[in-house]
Structures are given as structure tokens and as C-alpha cells.
Sequence to fold (151 residues):
Amino acid sequence: MSIKKETTLLEDLNQALAAETLAAFRYLYFSRIASGINSPPLSEMFEEMAEGEWKHAAMVMQRIVQLGGIPVSKPSEWEKRSFHPYNDPPRRGNDLKLIIRDSLKLERSAVEFYQRLAGKTRDSDLITYRLAVDAMVEEAEEEQKLAALLD
Ligand SMILES: [Fe+2]
Fold:
């Protein structure tokens, strides 16, 4: 693998680390602010999703270290480097549909990101490729779960 390619791959992985960290925070936030009649099951779901994103962050961080890179470490960099733009989370905990739609956007963006990463690594780095595919499938499952709530 050329140096340029590796630099790009490490940048991609750091974008993923930043995004996963923010996603974990965001879902934890939703799990705690959600209010209203349907909020208990939703809170539980968001708490599980937060744990899932945190695990993705761990996987990605481990891969960056394995590749000799430096994982993004400054919170101020998370927002700048995330593959998904970070907007303020919806503040009204009783607007569950808004919270779900917001989360759906995040999951779709994650699926697309990991799809691209899988495409880039398929022929050059099977370990990162598998990481990308595993994360992509999990994000797609979450996406499906969220979409079903809006039906
Ligand atoms: Fe994730």
C-alpha cells in the first residue's frame, strides 16, 4: 500500500472514529431526554444504539493504532472530522418522530460511509474491509429499526 493511500485510509478511519464517538453521545442524549407515552422503549433502544456506536468507535480506534496511525484525540476535532455533520440534537424530548428522523439521517450517512470504505479496501486491506462491512451491516439494521418506527 502506498504512503498516500495509507494516509487517506487513516483519515477515513479518523472520520469514522469522530462520527462514532459523536453518534454514541447523541444516542445516549436521546435516551435521556426522550419523554412522552412511547418514550420508555425508545429510551432503551437509544441506549443500546449508543453502546453499539461506542463499540464501533473502539473497533475503529484499534484499527487506526494497528495501522500505525494516531486516533483523533481532541473533542474539538470530532465535530470537524466526523463524516456526518453535527447539528444540535433536537431539544424537545417529546417530539419522538423528530428524534427518530434525525437518527435515521445519521444511520443512512453511516451506511453510505462504510459502503465507500468497504469499496476502497476490498482489494487492499481485508481487515479494514471486514470492519467496514460489519459496521455497515449493523448501521443498516439500526436504520431499518428506526424506519419501521415511522411506518
Ligand atoms: Fe456506528
In short: Residues 20, 23, 53, 56, 110, 135, 139 surround fe (ii) ion (CB under 6 Å). DSSP finds five helices and no strands in the chain. The radius of gyration is 16 Å. The mean pLDDT is 94.
